[in-house]
Recover the amino acids of this structure.
Protein backbone atom coordinates (compact mmCIF):
# COMPACT_ATOMS: atom_id res chain seq x y z
CA UNK A 1 0.00 0.00 0.00
CA UNK A 2 1.07 3.54 -0.72
CA UNK A 3 1.83 6.17 1.85
CA UNK A 4 -0.66 8.87 2.85
CA UNK A 5 -4.39 9.11 3.07
CA UNK A 6 -6.80 8.87 0.17
CA UNK A 7 -7.27 12.64 0.36
CA UNK A 8 -3.52 13.20 0.10
CA UNK A 9 -3.25 10.87 -2.91
CA UNK A 10 -6.19 12.61 -4.61
CA UNK A 11 -4.66 16.01 -3.93
CA UNK A 12 -1.38 14.94 -5.49
CA UNK A 13 -3.15 13.58 -8.58
CA UNK A 14 -5.41 16.59 -9.08
CA UNK A 15 -2.97 19.24 -7.98
CA UNK A 16 -4.53 22.57 -7.22
CA UNK A 17 -7.69 22.06 -9.30
CA UNK A 18 -10.92 23.38 -7.78
CA UNK A 19 -14.02 21.19 -7.54
CA UNK A 20 -15.72 23.00 -10.48
CA UNK A 21 -12.58 22.45 -12.59
CA UNK A 22 -12.59 18.76 -11.74
CA UNK A 23 -16.30 18.52 -12.47
CA UNK A 24 -15.83 20.21 -15.86
CA UNK A 25 -12.95 17.84 -16.64
CA UNK A 26 -15.19 14.82 -15.96
CA UNK A 27 -18.06 16.25 -18.03
CA UNK A 28 -15.70 16.85 -20.97
CA UNK A 29 -14.20 13.37 -20.58
CA UNK A 30 -17.65 11.74 -20.55
CA UNK A 31 -18.62 13.66 -23.68
CA UNK A 32 -15.45 12.50 -25.44
CA UNK A 33 -15.94 8.89 -24.28
CA UNK A 34 -19.55 8.95 -25.51
CA UNK A 35 -18.69 10.49 -28.87
CA UNK A 36 -20.77 13.53 -27.97
CA UNK A 37 -23.86 11.48 -27.09
CA UNK A 38 -25.28 13.40 -24.16
CA UNK A 39 -27.58 10.62 -22.96
CA UNK A 40 -24.62 8.25 -22.79
CA UNK A 41 -22.39 10.91 -21.19
CA UNK A 42 -25.00 11.47 -18.47
CA UNK A 43 -25.19 7.71 -17.94
CA UNK A 44 -21.40 7.48 -17.61
CA UNK A 45 -21.47 10.27 -15.02
CA UNK A 46 -24.40 8.77 -13.12
CA UNK A 47 -26.55 11.88 -13.56
CA UNK A 48 -29.72 12.71 -15.50
CA UNK A 49 -29.65 14.37 -18.92
CA UNK A 50 -31.31 17.41 -17.34
CA UNK A 51 -28.47 17.66 -14.80
CA UNK A 52 -25.89 17.24 -17.56
CA UNK A 53 -27.45 20.08 -19.56
CA UNK A 54 -27.32 22.26 -16.45
CA UNK A 55 -23.62 21.52 -16.06
CA UNK A 56 -22.99 22.16 -19.76
CA UNK A 57 -24.71 25.55 -19.44
CA UNK A 58 -22.76 26.40 -16.26
CA UNK A 59 -19.45 25.56 -17.93
CA UNK A 60 -20.31 27.32 -21.20
CA UNK A 61 -20.24 24.05 -23.13
CA UNK A 62 -23.71 24.18 -24.70
CA UNK A 63 -23.81 24.46 -28.46
CA UNK A 64 -26.53 26.34 -30.35
CA UNK A 65 -27.86 23.04 -31.69
CA UNK A 66 -28.28 21.59 -28.17
CA UNK A 67 -31.86 21.17 -27.04
CA UNK A 68 -32.23 20.53 -23.31
CA UNK A 69 -34.68 17.80 -22.31
CA UNK A 70 -38.30 18.84 -21.76
CA UNK A 71 -39.57 19.01 -18.18
Amino acid sequence: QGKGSSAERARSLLGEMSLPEIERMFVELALRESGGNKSRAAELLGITRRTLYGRLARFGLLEESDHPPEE
The CA atoms of residues 8 and 14 lie 10 Å apart. The radius of gyration is 15 Å.
